[in-house]
Amino acid sequence: MSQYWSGRFAREGMIWGNEPSPSAEQAREVFRMAGVGSVLVPGAGYGRNTKVFSEGFTTYGIELSKEAVELAQQWDPKTVFIAGSALEPQLDRQVDAVYCYDVLHLFLEEERQRLIEACLAQLQAGGLLYFTSFSDEDPNNGCGHRLEPGTYEYKEGKYAHFFSDGDLRSHFSETEITESGSFLERLHSSTGGTHEYILRYIIARKRD
Ligand SMILES: C[S@@+](CC[C@H](N)C(=O)[O-])C[C@H]1O[C@@H](n2cnc3c(N)ncnc32)[C@H](O)[C@@H]1O
Q1: Is the pTM of this model over 0.90?
Q2: Measuring from atom 27 of ligand 1, which residue has the nearest CA?
Q3: The CATH number of 2-135+164-205 is which of 3.40.50.620, 3.30.2310.20, 3.30.70.20, 3.40.50.150?
Q4: Which of 38, 60, 180, 194 is the most buried (most CB within 10 A)?
């Protein structure tokens, strides 16, 4: 996984351009209304979305690819980036909120649970979670070799899990889910191309 992403960041730089996802802006509003002071962004990439949070909150990013961390530190110097795996807790403090964009679907079932557990361990009681991931309504769902239920190698050497609403909610069954839904994400690459994905999002609260 690390080699794949590092290779892409080294070759393509800011792969998805510098505009944040509208979901980051929605999450910022949800966090602001709840009086959040600190945010963790696991799998932060090159900081495309961390910048939305670091303007107003103390923001931490965890990212596996050193190439991405180097780009992120230049693009968003206000966020503290940690090079490491988001599957394990990396912070020595707990934050008020977690925003995790399109990382959960990268893993098989056991690691998806580890990612959520690591996020919960770094989140204070009552803290908020905002996750996005591929939807089962995305056209790539069901393409290629099936590795696990709902998980497909949809491109050579690249697999993803495609979530139904019920599946996404069951991943967060230990939390208080406040909202879930889906949206069309349009990504503009640095080379001028456009890609569309159907994503799901979930907003939840860690139990006291
Ligand atoms: C689809 S990209 C999303 C990037 C970022 N969330 C954004 O909004 O632009 C997935 C990211 O997760 C990172 N990643 C993959 N496995 C990881 C892990 N175990 N720990 C931390 N980051 C990881 C990749 O390097 C890549 O930057």
Answers
A1: yes
A2: 45
A3: 3.40.50.150
A4: 60
